[in-house]
């Protein structure tokens, strides 16, 4: 990604509100520099009031008056209030932009998971990598780089004031600062060198943990635990060493400025006093502003070093928002984040969820037709070639086959998630993706992992329904899936924990099947719904499917025959690939 693209995507990421707050805070940073000038002037007034200097000393061509100590103290209090206000503005703006950017990145990521068809975007390792590494550190980049911008503006104004007060001393300071700057730039090259390797190592770690977790039993049985452990520890040490090195050079960069700045200050005092004989009042103002400038330079280089550490992750974030829908995705919703925190739009407080009336009418069970369908993943040979499948209205059809035979792929084709290379796939006479997108189409789905929410049993059964249901309908449906006795004992108010505690694996799947049936779907899809169940629970689900035959078109994807006991047709994937 080139510099122009980085700048363009950065502006998109900040949005109008972010850019507006940033510009306002830059003005506040200029104000801080002016406040420093006022403080240097007030210090001189104080010293003059105490009699340390004669009134003949002038500042910007004006003779310093001898003012009351109370007047000078009052002026100092006013300046302190102004400084507090502008300093709070800059620091809060940086904190706001950090959280605002993080909110927009996560919102965009969730949108892409839910609404886009990129399979890589939905992989757990990719999601974990983005949330734990990319987005969090990108927001830290925004925080540090925003502070860097503010300190740069403040330091630039202080530097200009140094020339106004004492131009000779300012030239010496400029030469010294240039030398210090070159040293800091050299150090920061090492920061960038190590920092760009950190996200790569983090991604490798995430993938390693996921691989071990998914294949734990295999690793144990093959007696490879020690090898996997040692390999992972090596990757962990590699990640830690890169991260520590990047932080070391960042800290070294931050401390180099003030360390060399003290030597520069001593040199300027000696030259000014012995060669140029600059007046004490002017030299005092210059030394104060130079000290503040060197201090600001130290803070600035620290923020710049941290920005370098987090820039590789920030660049990855910008790549993730390069899709054209980012602006639309991040339009303000009813839950906003403001400069001082979140608030909810009062107009949304009393809004209730309404079920769209268009979904209440019964939709006829659809026919599914695959005609001369060919499909292949990028850079691979065709998985299917000119296949023809017809699933009749209201029938129950099983797709069976071992892993790798294309069961999940053909299901994604039937549901419009993937598009064929050639041929056509139609549901009820329209393209599959169009049917699935219809507002009035009611589709039931039960996957291998039960999708339950924290709440009671009734809340889970009604989750996502497009129609109102009463308790009588719920109990009838629970009877179909052999859960009536359990619910009569526990009640519909039975609580399900955050980790789905309180239900067995079979009960969880039957709750999900009951929820799908309650919605009175025209199309019901079971994708390896019994993969993690024993034969008893599988037979119970098969019985439930028998009870709803003809009420909807049902597709059952499985590698086991038990759930297909009452299917009208079984398609063996090995016969069509």
TrEMBL record:
Keyword Membrane: yes
CDD domains: ABCC_MRP_Like
Main location: membrane
Transmembrane segments: 21-47, 67-86, 141-164, 170-187, 259-276, 282-305
Start and end residues of each ABC transporter domain: 368-577
Top-level taxonomic group: Bacteria
Cellular compartments annotated: Cell membrane
An example Gene Ontology molecular-function term: ATP binding
Residues of the ABC transmembrane type-1 domain: 24-306
Topological category with respect to the lipid bilayer: Multi-pass membrane protein
Swiss-Prot/TrEMBL keywords: ATP-binding, Membrane, Nucleotide-binding, Transmembrane, Transmembrane helix
One GO cellular component term noted in the UniProt record for this chain: plasma membrane
PANTHER family linked: ATP-BINDING CASSETTE SUB-FAMILY B MEMBER 10, MITOCHONDRIAL, ATP-DEPENDENT PERMEASE MDL1, MITOCHONDRIAL
Protein name as annotated: ATP-binding cassette domain-containing protein
Organism (species): Silvanigrella paludirubra
Classification of source organism: Bacteria, Pseudomonadati, Bdellovibrionota, Oligoflexia, Silvanigrellales
């Amino acid at each position: 990604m080139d510099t122009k693209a980085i700048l363009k995507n950065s502006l998109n990421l900040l949005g109008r509100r972010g850019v507006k707050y940033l510009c306002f805070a830059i003005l506040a940073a200029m104000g801080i520099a002016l406040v420093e000038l006022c403080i240097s002037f007030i210090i001189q007034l104080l010293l003059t009031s105490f009699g340390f200097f004669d009134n003949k000393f002038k500042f910007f061509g004006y003779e310093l008056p001898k003012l009351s100590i109370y007047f000078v103290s009052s002026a100092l209090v006013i300046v302190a209030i102004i400084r507090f206000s502008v300093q709070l503005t800059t620091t809060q703006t940086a904190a706001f932009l950090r959280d605002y950017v993080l909110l927009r990145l996560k919102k965009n990521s969730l949108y892409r998971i839910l609404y886009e068809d990129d399979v890589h975007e939905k992989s757990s390792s990719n999601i974990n990598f983005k949330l734990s590494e990319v987005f969090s550190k990108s927001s830290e980049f925004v925080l540090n780089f925003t502070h860097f911008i503010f300190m740069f503006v403040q330091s630039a104004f202080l530097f200009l004031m140094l020339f106004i007060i004492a131009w000779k001393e300012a030239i010496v300071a400029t030469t010294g600062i240039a030398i210090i700057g070159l040293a800091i730039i050299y150090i920061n090259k090492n920061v960038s060198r190590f920092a760009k390797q950190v996200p790569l190592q983090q991604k490798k770690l995430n993938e390693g943990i996921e691989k071990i977790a998914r294949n734990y039993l295999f690793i144990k049985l093959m007696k490879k635990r020690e090898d996997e452990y040692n390999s992972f520890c090596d990757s962990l040490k590699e990640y830690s060493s890169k991260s520590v090195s990047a932080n070391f050079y960042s800290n070294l960069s931050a401390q180099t400025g003030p360390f060399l700045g003290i030597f520069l200050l001593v040199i300027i005092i000696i030259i000014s006093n012995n060669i140029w004989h600059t007046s004490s009042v002017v030299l005092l103002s210059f030394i104060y502003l130079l000290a503040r400038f060197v201090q600001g330079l130290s803070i600035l280089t620290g923020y710049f070093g941290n920005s370098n550490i987090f820039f590789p992750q920030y660049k990855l974030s910008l790549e993730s928002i390069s899709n054209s829908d980012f602006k639309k995705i991040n339009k303000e919703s009813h839950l906003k984040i403001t400069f001082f925190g979140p608030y909810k739009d009062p107009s949304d407080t009393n809004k209730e969820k309404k079920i769209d009336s268009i979904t209440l009418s019964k939709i006829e069970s659809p026919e599914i037709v695959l005609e001369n369908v060919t499909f292949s993943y990028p850079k691979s040979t065709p998985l299917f070639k000119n296949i023809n499948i017809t699933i009749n209205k209201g029938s129950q059809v099983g797709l069976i086959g071992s892993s790798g035979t294309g069961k999940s792929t053909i299901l994604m084709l039937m549901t419009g998630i993937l598009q064929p290379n050639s041929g056509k796939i139609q549901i009820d006479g329209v393209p599959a993706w169009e049917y699935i997108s219809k507002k009035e189409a009611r589709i039931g789905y039960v996957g291998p992992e039960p999708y339950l929410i924290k709440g009671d049993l009734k809340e889970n059964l009604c989750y996502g329904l497009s129609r109102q249901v009463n308790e009588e309908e719920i109990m009838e449906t629970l009877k179909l899936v052999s859960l009536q006795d359990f619910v009569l004992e526990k009640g519909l108010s039975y609580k399900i924990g955050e980790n789905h505690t309180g239900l067995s694996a079979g009960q969880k799947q039957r709750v999900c099947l009951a929820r799908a049936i309650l919605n009175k779907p025209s199309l019901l899809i079971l994708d390896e719904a019994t993969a993690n169940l024993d034969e008893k629970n599988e037979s119970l689900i098969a019985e439930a499917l028998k009870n709803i035959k003809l009420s909807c078109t049902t597709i059952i994807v499985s590698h086991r025959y038990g759930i297909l006991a009452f299917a009208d047709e079984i398609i063996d994937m090995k016969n069509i690939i």
